[in-house]
Write a structure and sequence with these properties.
383 residues; Rossmann fold; 7-stranded mixed sheet; 5-stranded parallel sheet; 19% strand
């Protein structure tokens, strides 16, 4: 009986170690579909450099990344994905642009980890890996609560991204005083902001008050009139914070319209979306202070330095994301016994990357972001 037990134990150990060896020796191929030719080839080439950096950091020869050129075209994205699938690949990082996701639902056997920050209407096998609106609004929501800001207006441009923002507002249960859709046409924008802020009424209030004092016999009349004439408007503003869902010059145009209507960042909190630390905003002192959710700035700067040391050029923002997506896939594989089955992106999990913390659950990724302000011409971390 003892002999039989020893034989059974030996067989069991042989099977276990054989399985462990199979897992440790198993090679995993991951696809990477990015534009490597045409107008956006510079993005794809930078992404490939970042993935190379990530693989060097991981230093595990079981992982191989195979790049293919999408030419930033949805038909080519589908074609090269089919080529990768025929080579046994079930996980693909990419594509870069949301439009390139268009036909990928034809390949249900593949999970795509796209760089897009859009979630709406993606094929079921495409996971948005970008810094999406839900992640950003969740971070803004925390700031509003911590600063007791209860009367917030959300300014949303009339663009394709509008529905993405509106869905995120609903999913995060963000409580607003008002949601206001504005035109990207600068000839219409100022009038819309005037109406929103009751500018003409507040301007009329000032004129009426000056006239009332002029017609009165009150003491220090002249001094009071001079003081009023230094103002642009008179009357309260019925909101304490404004979120501007815009970027670059368009963001500056909206802020300029708010300033024109005498709604400065000294009177209400100016908040916007992830600006990727756009340094041109440091010069726009009339907007300061202005606040926004974003990736971790220290990590971003470290990554840029490391990238420059390796390639003597600076990376684009998407390549920073690609570095983390490679790490994310590797982390999930390690936690799934190196199996590329459907559980990989379904089980609830967390991964701490350079961008911040990735939260994965039921084929959805959200990010735990930092929050920054531009105060006195510098970026300042709030939390």
């Amino acid at each position: 009986m003892k002999k039989l037990y020893i034989i059974i134990l030996k067989v069991f150990l042989i099977v276990v170690f054989a399985n462990l060896k199979a897992i440790s020796d198993e090679k995993i191929k991951i696809g990477l579909i990015v534009p490597l030719s045409g107008e956006y080839s510079y993005i794809g080439k930078s992404i490939i450099k970042s993935t190379r950096m990530a693989l060097n950091k991981i230093s595990d020869n079981r992982i191989t990344i195979i790049p293919k050129d999408t030419k930033a075209n949805p038909i080519d994205a589908l074609r090269v994905s089919k080529e990768l699938y025929s080579g046994g690949i079930k996980i693909i990082i990419g594509p870069v642009f949301n439009e390139s996701n268009k036909y990928l639902d034809e390949l249900n056997e593949i999970t795509f980890l796209s760089f897009t920050n859009k979630i709406r209407n993606n094929p079921k096998n495409v996971i948005s890996g970008g810094v999406n609106a839900i992640s950003q609004i969740n971070t803004i929501k925390r700031y509003l609560i911590e600063n007791n800001l209860k009367n917030t207006i959300f300014l949303i441009p009339e663009t394709e991204y509008k529905r993405e923002i509106e869905d995120a507002i609903d999913k995060t249960n963000l409580i607003l005083k008002e949601k206001f859709i504005y035109s990207k046409d600068p000839t219409l924008l100022t009038k819309q902001i005037e109406d929103l802020t009751r500018y003409q009424q507040r301007k009329q209030n000032l004129e009426n008050e000056i006239k009332r004092i002029e017609d009165s016999n009150i003491l220090n009349k002249k001094r009071k009139i001079e003081k009023l004439k230094k103002k642009d408007t008179l009357g309260f503003i019925n909101f304490d914070s404004v979120i501007i869902a815009d970027f670059s010059e368009s963001l500056k145009s909206v802020a300029t319209s708010l300033l024109y209507t005498d709604v400065s960042s000294e009177r209400v909190k100016y908040i916007t979306l992830n600006q990727w630390f756009d340094e041109s905003l440091l010069k726009e002192t009339s907007l300061h202070p202005i606040y926004f959710p974003s990736i971790n700035k220290d990590n971003f700067e470290t990554f840029k330095e490391y990238y420059f040391q390796n390639f003597k050029t600076l990376p684009n923002q998407i390549s920073f994301l690609s570095y983390d997506l490679v790490g994310l896939v590797y982390y999930l594989l390690i936690n799934n016994n190196f199996k590329t089955d459907e559980n990989l992106f379904i089980k609830e999990n967390k991964f701490k990357g350079r961008i911040g913390v990735f939260e994965i659950n039921k084929k959805t990724i959200t990010h735990q972001l930092n929050f920054y302000g531009i105060e006195q011409k510098i970026f300042k971390e709030i939390f």
